[in-house]
Amino acid sequence: MLMRRIVLTDHNLSGRRPMIERYSDHAANERTFLAWVRTAIAIMAFGFLVQKFDLFLRIANQSLDARSASAGSQIVGNIAGLLLIVLGGVVMALAAIRFRKTTRDIDSKEVQPGPGEGLDITLVSLLLLLGTILFVYLVYTGISSL
To answer: Which of 4, 50, 60, 143 has its CA 20 to 30 A from that of 114?
Structure first.
């Protein structure tokens, strides 16, 4: 748990519990951080699913004695799964860095500029790129199995 500055007011001196300065800002920052962590976990879980589903397709093809998928398509599935897992880890690390910076900015007496949209747009672009690669991969494997 992070240490917060406790501010005593006139009301606090009458026996009430002390309030955390800018509590609503800190609570919003923590909710945003947890949302980023949940997103990172979901990205990592999806990468794990892509990785394991590709393995499942290979085993199913071998057990059904069907025409196996090409090695190139298997590599794409493996790389996409691993990239999603790594991207989830990067998102989690960046969320922690952003959380700490925002916490310091909230506690600062000066007005600080916002973090901007650059990081958010970059992460969305990477996810769209990986989603497109997975879509092309699934279309390719679907056509090649016909």
So the answer is: 4
What are the residue ranges spanned by the domains of the chain?
Answer: 37-107+115-144
Tokens of 136: 């092309």
Lowest average pLDDT, out of 8-17, 27-36, 109-118, 122-131, goes to 8-17
Say how far apart CA 95 and CA 133 lie, in whole Å.
25
Q: How many helices (H) and strands (E) does the chain have?
A: 3, 2
Q: Are 106 and 26 in contact (CB under 8 A)?
A: yes
Yes or no: say if 13 and 69 are a contact pair by the CB < 8 Å rule: no
Distance in angstroms (rounded) separating the CA atoms of residues 127 and 80 = 11
pTM: 0.65
Q: Where are the beta strands (DSSP E) in the chain?
A: 6-7, 19-20
Q: Is 22 left (phi over 0), alpha (psi -120 to 50) or beta?
A: left
Predicted confidence at residue 36, as pLDDT, reads 92
Angle, helix 118-144 to helix 23-63, in steps of 10 degrees: 10
